[in-house]
Task: inverse folding
């Protein structure tokens, strides 16, 4: 049970020179409060007594401000732990010294972006150009006024005649050093808005929610980690800030678009890398960045919620649009229908939020993704039943393939319709030597029965099969839209897969265990769709990407041995691409090589729960079959080892796993099991 100290306390020095805190007065009990830490935090696994002593975490709160007649600005602020208990900035009466920095900026009247008062001059050693950049205040002073309460006096003063009726903001960011307790450095930031004349704050800069960014990044953390919110970033990444080394704008709306577009920028594709040189001349090359979704999907970031969530639709500008479309020369009209634009005044006349027709000049229209076009008639599949599905029999599958009106689509109008059979649901290692069979359903073989199709598979379920098997359906079609116009196009798109489980031996149907969900994948990828849009649900993917499958059928003989494409091993290796200690290339359809060594995961690799659900990241892995891995350190490799070595790619990690494997199996759970000393959640915690 944790106890909250009362407000009064006194400090005395022990003979050993250690500070001893003696609590005086009443105490409050709060062991039933919501825990401030979760399984992703190292503090979650600490001993309760140590938590009470260290009080890990950092929360910075700006509580007020003062402006003197000479323009001197003071910020009142608090440093606390997540429970609200005060922390000592110097790390004397509470563990961990805390560094805090402050930014002061305003949104000029009639404008929508910040201009920072706190600036620095950066001179490029490359170009000799000097640039004034928004930055943190330097040379200010701190004064402690209470338990965890402080006043910061800015060295930067407001100029005479400053806009007292404009929104002003104080940004504070800081770091607390708790490395001696194996808690690393803990960070936080906050932004405090006010209008100097006392008017309410009505003008803000609020376009993107932190939660939207953190859906892919888990936790925004830049410039050493303490800048953790979009609101904080907006204070310095203003139109006034330019990289003097490269001339690249550091304005938020420009920089973020260009970083996310990365490798798809027209300038990058033409051979000019997109490079920004930061603090201490650190070089950041974003030319390799591949956005995990379709870059045209503006709404993957611009989601409802923030106060200015629709600004991207209602206020197009040359800077914003030109950040992605950087082959447009607005001054000459090149790339812009030969129409020069000397200002942003006319942009919204042509680029309205949404027009009458997709693919027009409206903002939504111009960014329409063809496979998401509302003009497509649609394709939907559903397995209704699996009959004759016992061991030694050929399954009969009843299914629907319909358009969005519910009408049955003739099989001849599809350019792909297939059923995939695999089992058992414990591991998918039967039938055949690849663990699955895929049968193309032709118009002749599919019989119409009322409002659905009936198809009997040519594959026989193995006579010795036990447990539950699965059948998945995949289908796609091609439709022409905007026919007869200058923008006529043919669009190939697929149906959402559907998988049905059934028993082959009269035992209870046992569904496949759930490791991840398609919905979690689509937080970053928007719409996972592979192999010509055929496979777009995790339940379908794992039918083929099972422990037995490799790329041997597609890999040229000269590139032997084959590479494992087991789901657990492959997905970990892909997402940990740039951490791989060897070449990781998979050969796909058309014998096309796909190299993933350049992939950089958008969040810490240790953020297992960004993908995994239901504790499925824990060990031992709920699997039975060994994984065929011809190019791995071990072949075959045990299921838990295979999953873990996807990210932990070193020979040392493989040797450790091998040393803890015997003829009886893996012993990973002894140390890495839930609640153990090196539990997966504990060693991956932040």
Result:
């Amino acid at each position: 049970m944790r106890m909250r100290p009362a407000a009064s306390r006194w400090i005395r020095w022990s003979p050993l020179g250690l500070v001893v805190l003696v609590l005086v007065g009443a105490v409050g009990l709060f062991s039933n409060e919501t825990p401030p830490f979760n399984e992703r935090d190292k503090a979650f696994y600490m001993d309760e007594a140590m938590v009470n002593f260290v009080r890990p975490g950092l929360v910075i709160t700006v509580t007020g401000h003062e402006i003197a007649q000479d323009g001197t600005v003071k910020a009142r602020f608090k440093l606390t732990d997540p429970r609200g208990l005060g922390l000592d900035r110097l790390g004397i009466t509470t563990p961990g010294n805390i560094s805090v920095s402050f930014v002061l900026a305003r949104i000029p009247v009639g404008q929508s972006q910040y201009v920072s008062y706190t600036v620095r001059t950066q001179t490029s050693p490359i170009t000799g150009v000097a640039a004034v950049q928004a930055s943190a205040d330097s040379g200010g002073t701190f004064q402690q006024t209470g338990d965890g309460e402080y006043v910061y006096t800015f060295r930067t003063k407001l100029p005479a005649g400053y806009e007292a009726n404009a929104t002003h903001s104080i940004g504070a960011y800081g770091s607390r050093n708790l490395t001696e307790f194996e808690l690393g450095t803990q960070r936080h930031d906050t932004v405090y808005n006010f209008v100097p004349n006392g008017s309410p704050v009505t003008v803000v800069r609020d376009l993107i929610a932190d939660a939207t960014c953190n859906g892919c990044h888990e936790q925004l953390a830049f410039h050493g980690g303490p800048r953790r919110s979009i609101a904080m970033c907006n204070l310095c990444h203003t139109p006034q800030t330019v990289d003097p080394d490269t001339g690249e704008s550091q304005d938020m709306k420009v920089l973020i678009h260009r970083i996310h577009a990365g490798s798809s920028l027209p300038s990058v594709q033409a051979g000019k890398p997109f490079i920004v040189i930061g603090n201490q001349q650190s070089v950041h090359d974003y030319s390799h960045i591949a956005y995990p979704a379709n870059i045209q999907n503006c709404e993957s970031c611009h989601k409802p919620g923030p106060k200015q969530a629709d600004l991207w639709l209602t206020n197009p500008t040359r800077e914003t649009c030109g950040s992605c479309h950087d082959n447009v020369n607005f001054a000459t009209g090149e790339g812009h229908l030969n129409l020069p634009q000397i200002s942003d005044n006319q942009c919204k006349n042509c680029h309205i939020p949404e027009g009458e027709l997709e693919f027009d000049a409206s903002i939504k229209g111009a960014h329409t993704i063809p496979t998401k076009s509302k003009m497509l008639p649609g394709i939907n599949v559903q397995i209704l039943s699996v009959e004759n599905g016992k061991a030694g029999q050929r399954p009969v599958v009843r299914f629907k393939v319909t358009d969005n009106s519910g009408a049955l689509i003739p099989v001849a109008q599809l350019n792909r319709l297939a059923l995939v059979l695999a089992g058992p649901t414990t591991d998918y290692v039967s039938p055949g030597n690849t663990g699955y069979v895929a049968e193309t359903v032709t118009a002749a073989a599919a019989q119409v029965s009322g409002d659905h199709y009936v198809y009997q598979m040519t594959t026989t379920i193995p006579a010795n099969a036990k447990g539950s098997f699965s059948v998945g359906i995949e289908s796609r079609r091609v439709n022409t839209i905007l026919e007869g116009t200058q923008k006529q196009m043919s669009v190939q798109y697929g149906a959402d897969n559907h998988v049905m489980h059934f028993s082959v031996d009269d035992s209870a149907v046992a569904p496949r265990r759930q490791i991840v969900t398609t919905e979690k994948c689509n937080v970053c990828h928007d719409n996972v769709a592979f192999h010509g849009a055929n496979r777009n649900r995790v339940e379908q993917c794992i039918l083929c990407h099972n422990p037995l499958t490799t790329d041997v059928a597609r890999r040229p003989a000269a590139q032997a041995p084959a590479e494992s494409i087991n789901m657990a091993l492959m997905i970990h290796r892909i997402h940990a691409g740039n951490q791989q200690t060897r070449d990781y290339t998979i050969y796909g359809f058309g014998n096309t090589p796909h190299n993933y060594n350049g992939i950089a995961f958008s969040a810490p690799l240790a953020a297992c729960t960004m993908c995994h659900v239901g504790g499925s990241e824990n060990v031992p892995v709920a699997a039975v079959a060994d994984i065929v891995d011809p190019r791995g350190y071990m072949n075959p490799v045990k299921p838990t080892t295979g999953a873990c070595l996807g990210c932990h790619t070193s020979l040392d990690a493989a040797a450790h796993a091998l040393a803890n494997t015997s003829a009886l199996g893996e012993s990973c759970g002894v140390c890495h099991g839930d609640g153990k000393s090196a539990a997966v959640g504990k060693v991956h915690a932040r």
Notes: The chain is about 15% helix and 25% strand. Residues 29 and 377 are 62 Å apart (CA to CA). Residues 380-544 form a domain with the Immunoglobulin-like fold (CATH 2.60.40.1930).
